Fold this sequence. Notes:
It is a single chain. This protein is mainly α and 192 residues long. Helices cover 73% and strands 0% of the residues. It has helices at 15-38, 41-52, 63-71, 78-99, 103-120, 122-131, 133-142, 147-158, 165-188. α2 (41-52) runs parallel beside α5. The longest helix has 24 residues, at 15-38. The mean pLDDT is 90.
Amino acid sequence: MFPVFDDSDMKIVGEKKAVQEDSSEFQGYLDESSKQHFNGNAAKAKALGMNIVSSFSYKAAPAELVQFVIEQGIKPTDDIMLQVRYLSVFAAEYCLGRFLPSPFLSDVAKSAMYDVLMEYSPDFYDSLARSGAFSFYYLALRTSDDTCGAVGNQFAVLCGREGEGSFEALGKKLFELSVSVYKKAINGFAFV
């Protein structure tokens, strides 16, 4: 049998430092939150997130989007168009994370975007949450310096058409187009 030692007087090394770091991070978050609320950026980020949902919350794909897919030599089946919508949401999340002036504002915009999507398109929101598509897109981005190409390749994989040039090109073009549109929308809000 092992001897029992009284360790009630022992201290955990580093415990005080961890608490200090947490407190410092929390204070930084509060300062950032206050700053962004008072300068109007938080309200802009929320409005941006709420408005961006209109790009992918449709029940049936807009005719010009279906036509674009056809022009790329791809039949716009329901499964393909669902992947197109997933890619559009991913592009929005990517842009909100990359082009807003702070992580706090990115979080505000993303939260508003998903809240509205959940309210107006709950079936699509649930489908997106179950899909795992974003994990694959983010993994692809981490393994390549060619952002648009990596997304295009992953789009083809998610469509079940890995290595097919027309699907890779479609994914790449859709991502480039989406990023351009979302970046323009972000710039239109004139964050300070």
